[in-house]
Write the C-alpha cells for this entry.
Amino acid sequence: MTMIGINPLRTVAKKTVNRIVKAIPPVKFKTNGKMTNAVKWVGQHISSPENRLILGVTALMSQPFIDLHNRHVDERTKEVSAARTVAKIIAGTTTGVIVRYACIAAANAFTHKPGPGVKKLSTLFYPINSKITTKKLNKYINFMGTALSLGVMMFTNFLIDAPLTKFLTNKFISNIDNKKALKNKSINLPRKSLDEFIKSSANNVKGVNNDKC
Amino acid sequence: MTSAKTPLTIFDKLYKAYGGSMGKMLIHTGVIGWALSSAAQIFAIAINDKIPKEQKMFMIPQEFADACVNILSFYAVTQTFSAVGKKLVSTGKWLPENVKKHLVKKGFGAKIGKLNTNLETIIEQMPSRIKTSYGRFEHGMDVTATTIGSIISCNLITPLVRNLYASHRQQTQIAKMNNKNEPLQKPNQQNYGQNNIKAFNPYRTNGSLKV
C-alpha cells in the first residue's frame, strides 16, 4: 500500500536535488590533492560526536548574533534571548559530545565477534547473521553508540541540560546587568563630582565674598 | 548456514540500514535527538512552578512550534544536502581523478556527469583500489554535505524562523492581553499616552521572548 501524500513530496525533493546537481559545475579532484584528501579525512574521522561539536561551535558563532540583531523585539528581550541561546548551546553541546563519545565507546565494547573466550555480554550488539566488513562494522558501531546516546540523553536532557541551561542563563543575565550597572555608575560619576565641584566652588566663592564683606 | 534461513536479529537489520551510510545515520539520529531535546524543554516549562499558568499556555505551544520548525528544517535541508552530495559523486560530476581516468579507460566516459548515471553499480566491477578510492570519497562527501546542511539548517534557518515566529506570537499575545484589559477602563479615565493607544500594541514587548 502506498502512502498518499509522500510520493509527490519525494518527486519534488528528487526534482530539486536534480536541479541543484545540474547547476553545480564539475570540479577536478586531484588523486592525492588537498581537497580529495580533506574529503576522505572527513569521511574517516567525523562521526556523530564530532558532528555535534561542529554544530555547537558554529552555533556559538552565529545564533547569539542572530538573536542580538532581531529587529522585532526590544533591547532587553534581545539580551535575554541571546543569553539563553548561548547557555543552551554550551549545555547541549557539552553533554551531547560527552554522552556520544561515552556511548560509542560502550557500543565498541559490546560489539565483539562471538567466539571462544569472548564474554556473551561483549557480543550483545554484534549482527551475527550478517556479512560483516570492517568498514561497515565501524559505521554500525558509530550508529549503535549514537542510538544508545539518544536513550541516555532522554535522562541527561532533563537532569543536566535543562538545569544547566537555566543556571548559565541566569549567570549570563546577571553578568550583563552587572556590566550595565557598572557602566551607568561610571557615566554618572563625573556628573556627580561636577555637581559637587560646582557646589563646593560656589560655597568657596560665597565664603570669599563673605570674607570680603 | 545461509543468511536466508536464519532470521535477522534487530542488530542485523540496523547493520543493514546504517552500516552503509554515515550521512543517513547522522540525519536520523539528529532528528530524534532534536525531538528529545525539545520534549525536555517542554517538560521543564511544564513542571516549573515559577512560571504562571497563563505564560505556560503561551510558552508550551511556542516551544512545540519551535521544535517542529527545528526538526522540519533539519530534516528537509540536511536531507537535501546529503542527497546532493551523494548524487554529485554517483553521477560522476565530482570524482577523484584516478577513478575518473579509470572509468574513461574502461569506456564509461560518456556516462560521467549525466543526471541518470549511477556509478555505484559500475564501480562494483572495478579493481579494489578504485573501489576503495571511490568509496572513501563518496563517504567523505556524504558526511561533508550532511554537516554543511545541518549547520545551515540548525544555525541559520532555524534561529531566523524561530525568532520571527516567537516575536510574532509574543506581539499577538500582548495585543490580546491588552484588548482584554481595555473594557475595564472607564472612558473618562483614559490616558492617551503611547501605552494605551491600540496602534502601538504590536510594537510593545514585555521582554519575555523565549528562544
Q: What stands out?
A: The first strand of chain B starts at residue 94 and ends at 96.
